Amino acid sequence: MFIHSAIFWLRKDLTPAERALFDIEVRRLAQIPYLERGYVGTPAETQSRPVTDHSFDYATSLHFKSLEDHEFYQTKCEDHARFVAVCKTFWQRVVIYDMSPLAGQHNDGSPVT
Prior knowledge:
It contains 3 helices and 4 strands. With about 110 residues, the protein is of the alpha+beta class. It is globular, with a radius of gyration of 15 Å.
């Protein structure tokens, strides 16, 4: 498995229509059929702590079955290309975190016994 997380800070001057379009387009990413799982969210209403960052507007966590699926997403996926083409002017900052889960875990994160 391979997990691709993207954190978005949108431009403050977006119109309500632009924000709505971003919301529609980013949600489509989580519906890509070859994903193992896909999530889109906004900052959780957790208590502010020194280690939490609630400053972003949207985040995605896309779980791919393999690194090859992720590479396809980055280079040939029409859904991802559409999202970037439609929305790239809407964010002022994006940060990507890609991770490979450690061996010895089930897909749900529980340890293999």
